Amino acid sequence: AGLIRYTAMFFTLLGTWFILQMYFDQSWKAISLRGWIGKQLPRHKCGNRKGCPQNHFAFKIISGAANVVGPSLCFNDVVLMSSVKNNVGRGLNIALVNGTNGQLLKVDTFDMYSGDINKLDTFLQEIKHGTIMLTASYDDPATKMNDKVRAHFTELGSSHVSKLGFRDNWVFLGAKGLKNKSPFEEYIKNNKTTNKYNGWPELLEMEGCVPRKTD
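Structure for Protein FAM3D, as requested:
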């Protein structure tokens, strides 16, 4: 009886050791694999999920969140506007870059609630052919918006500016001289019935690759 008991205990301990050995071995392999993958994953420009092909610029545009968190505009791995850089403001935040070499040309903010709409009108009229424009809303992007200014944005490739309203959220990348509508635009309506933040739309985040101007 004693021999049987010791034999049973021996096989029980042996089985337990075998199970634990397999568990820790698999866990170690999983940890090692995660660590190996983590070290090998490349960082893409602007922190985007995917890289861009040759002759393309990476970009990421993040709108403001309500009237609390400011927007962020990144182009070719350079943050052009953000709260950290202290160069964003209520309304529309716009950066212009050279479509050939990606160099920053100008940044500006336009108060669309109580500012002078003529300032934005002049700014848009002066954009030169081949210039890429990044736009992000913050708080209110449209109270002062008029038909003339909306037409300028439409010429730059916007599909949604015609319906942009009070405290809507909007991110847009367009260019002077586009033959078609820009594929880079997102829009959320300010709606107290459907939006979960007391009517405020949640922030928008748009990223992608825009082709370098070559002609």
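The radius of gyration is 27 Å.
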